[in-house]
Design brief:
The protein has about 325 residues and is mainly beta. About 5% of the residues lie in helices and about 65% in strands.
């Protein structure tokens, strides 16, 4: 869902920018914004580390003693590629891979569920995305549909679908604003219809308010020609599949909803490369384990983690930055 919101925001902002141009050819329709820091990158690699944190938990409504995550880190790679670009529609793909390593001190009874003290998990997802551009009430409309599959190193697990409709409400030199709806075709999602709102405003002092709800809220400031600093919060999700954790030999999914709050520094290195550093506090609202065939609300295990500090470093490559490097 987070990846879909990011892609949707990219399409929206690109379309807003280009709608202000008189010549909107098929190639320009999906061109990246004329800046060094686009929302999505063609290729992106990240490493994330968390400080230790404690958590309370329940197993099948039975309270468990407090436990602790001693080490948690993950590496992520993603690719966003446009396959076919036409005047009114674009077909693209989004590819993601995550590796997670977790060391935990738990007191979960081994005869009820088998959570290892150190576990490594692999998660991947692939999606095919179709975006269509039109007008409604003389306003720019952006429709998109996405089909995705995810899984682990063992199996492909779940097929999902997402559809969106977004209207561009305002687009001028200082302010860009859109509103729409996102519909998720996924039995594990408790709220299948989500309102989506984006707002960008450039203040006279050089600050930029960048809001993509429900994904992120940032206040940005350009420091030098090749760097910028942002402060704010961003929604994140950690998920992976679990096997053979009980005697029933069922498949489960772990899903943790998080909010990262802190600073983000981005620096354009040249030759289409951007380095990123993020750091701050991670609030983990809910952590649940549920059967793959069940919903997120029908869980067998739930944890309430304490907040932790996070550090994230990333490197991305985007050849479209070359078009704007001199601006």
């Amino acid at each position: 869902m987070k990846a879909k919101l990011t892609l949707l925001a990219t399409v929206i902002i690109n379309t807003i920018y280009l709608s202000q141009k008189k010549d909107s050819t098929s190639t320009k329709t999906m061109a990246y914004i004329a800046e060094k820091f686009p929302i999505t990158r063609v290729l992106n690699i990240e490493y994330n580390q968390l400080t230790p944190y404690a958590f309370s938990s329940k197993l099948r409504d039975q309270e468990l003693p407090e436990a602790k995550v001693r080490d948690f880190y993950k590496a992520k790679m993603s690719a966003n590629i446009n396959l076919i670009t036409k005047q009114k529609w674009v077909l693209g793909t989004n590819l993601n891979y995550r590796y997670l390593s977790i060391k935990t001190d738990t007191n979960v009874p081994a005869d009820k569920v088998n959570f290892g003290s150190k576990e490594d998990h692999h998660y991947h997802s692939e999606s095919l995305n179709l975006t269509y551009f039109s007008k409604l009430f003389n306003k720019m409309m952006i429709y998109s549909a996405s089909a995705s599959v995810d899984g682990s190193e063992q199996h492909f697990e779940r097929l999902r679908g997402v559809a969106t409709a977004t209207m561009v409400l305002k687009a001028d030199a200082k302010t860009k604003m859109t509103a729409g709806l996102l519909v998720a075709i996924d039995p594990t999602v408790q709220t299948p219809v989500i309102p989506v709102f984006t707002y960008e405003h450039k203040f006279s002092n050089g600050f930029i308010a960048d809001i993509i709800l429900p994904k992120s809220v940032y206040l940005r400031k350009k420091i030098t020609e090749n760097s910028r600093l942002s402060i704010g919060s961003e929604l994140d999700v950690t998920s992976f599949y679990l096997y053979n954790i009980d005697n029933a030999n069922k498949k489960y999914e772990f899903r943790q909803i998080e909010i990262n709050s802190g600073l983000m520094y981005e620096h354009y290195l040249g030759n289409s490369f951007v380095a990123t550093f993020k750091g701050g506090a991670k609030g983990m609202m809910r952590s649940r384990v549920f059967e793959k065939s069940a919903s997120y609300g029908s869980y067998i295990f739930q944890a309430k983690p304490q907040a932790a500090f996070y550090m994230n470093v990333g490197l991305s490559f985007d050849p479209f930055i070359k078009k704007t490097a001199g601006r």
